[in-house]
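To whoever is covering the structure queue this week,

Two jobs came back overnight. Logging them here so there's a record in the thread.

Job A:
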Amino acid sequence: MGSEWQEVSLGDIFKVKHGFAFKGQFFTDTRTSTILVTPGNFAIGGGFQNPKPKYYKGEISEEYILKPGQVIVTMTDLSKEADTLGYAAIVPDDGNIWLHNQRIGLLEFKDSFPTDSVFINYLLRTNEYRSWIIGSASGTTVKHTSPSRIHAFKCKIPPINEQRAIAHILGSLDDKIELNRRMNKTLEAIARAIFKSWFIDFDPVIDNALQAGNPIPDSMAERAEMRRQILDQNQPSSSSFISQRAKNRKYSGGFDFSGLGEISIDEIYGLFPDSFQDSELGPIPKGWEVVPLSEFLNIIGGGTPKTKVKEYWGGNIPWFSVIDAPSETDVFVIDTEKHITQLGVERSSTKVLRKGTTIISARGTVGKCALLGRPMAMNQSCYGIQGKNGESDYFVYFVIKRQVSDLQRSGHGSVFNTIIRDTFRTIRIILPPTKLTILLEDTVHELMELMLSNLFENLTLASLRDILLPKLISGELRVPDAEKFVEEAGV
């Protein structure tokens, strides 16, 4: 570390400002562009996330509207290990109005000390700072920190130009991670839209019926009229358009969506019927069935190796529990917090499930879903789900995702709802022929594999960032060396 690095207290650089206690009567589940920042917006390890927006519909003082690029910290944490206490995040520039809520600290930087705010954001994600915050926290069940405790942390700061260079290196890695996340959100939406168009809205069947002159059920009249207008205008139907867009769309890195091979849209539609039949769930495509979920699913239980036997833990087999569930748009789980050994598998009721298995949490936090991006085991609070008769993995996943609310409502238990095997027998769904589920697999395969590739790349990028961060912030690694390190890593 050069002599130009200066030892300071954080209070010399910025002041932490408390947020406002917004009134609970104005909280709403209705989507608005006005969202309260809560501790849930802070990722473990630092950084901004938005898994469960808390919308607000009351009056707002301009003073408590956060600006994009501002640095915020969380000063309260409900988790046992205070997972996010004191960590920093940067307010995103995403078109939303983010509100400065109570127990969220806003960093107001002092003009007297030249500082790059992005650099400070990363400094507040180091182990040294984290240890200081946890060591000085108050509270037992709920952990708290305060502006004075944050201000008191001492560290060494490089000159402003080096701050900016460090911020650029680390920020570039986070920017790539965020780009991949956004891409995955788009890819998931396309795949989900194809599933919905084919198996929920029955667009190909409606289109075929219209072209054949067959009757349309009254309950589908509005949808059919929309489809008729599309056909009359010779526009591609939404399902065929989405499929074609999926085939043609390309991203950097050489990936393209060509999973359909040489099959044409007409050939795809030829696999769907051109009429409907009555069923207990209303009109369904001719030849399709209404069956209990359990009829076409293999439901696999999990288990936990004895925690006191160290030979069972710390191996190379990922072991899934609900805390490992991915975000809605990431879909896949590729790593877990805990790992077990082959001996742990052999001496417990857990099993190693193949890639492509759907997992759903069945106890505690019920209804969290994930697709396995690699083989892994799971605990007894989850079920692994696979098609029984050759149904495609992606079809199974999207069916289970759509049925989560029904599974939760049908859950058993006096205190906490629990999904048991019988729960899957109580819910009936419309099941297409297996060949159509395989067609879905072929159609969305490239999209889903690109999502998976992005997740693995993000794992590598995050690991690289976490290696560089403490070395750059401490001065152990200087900027030119870090730039060379990143280049050699192929990022």
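Job B:
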Amino acid sequence: MGKKISFGIVLPTRGILFSGSDPRKDVIELSKQTEEYGYDGVWAGDSILAKPRLDSIVVLSAVAAVTKRVKLGTSCFASFPLRHPIILGYQWATLDQLSGGRTILVVCQGTPTKHGPIYRNEYDALGIPPGEKVVRVEEGIEILRKIWSGDNVSYNGRVYKFRDVTVLP
């Protein structure tokens, strides 16, 4: 017998900002229905300024509170290179605890800044050189793996440097 195919939905966390609809209905109720109908996952897109939407970590926390079984994840965590990995690691570990271990973190580097000023402005506004995007993703993944699997972690990379950090939960 072959592997089971999983199905899920991507929440409309961007569209509701422009439609004037109620996020509780379009995000929370839809998530509950997704679980009731037997789907396997609920996913949230991610972007901070370039493509505004409800924050993916906050949304997934709300979904974790009203579901019991579905996996929870980011469809593409485009703001990953814009977030410090220690803070993100702490937030994601908290979400994973609150959800009972149901999270899946899917990272990406987002849209290249050469594709328009909205992408470049996001980096400029946060004081991050766009040329660091790839190294921030690489180092960020490496840091998350370390802080989620050990105590008193130190790191000395091109972008991130720290000593003796323990991230709980």
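Note for Job B: The chain has a mean pLDDT of 93.

Please reply-all if you pick these up so we don't duplicate work.
Q.
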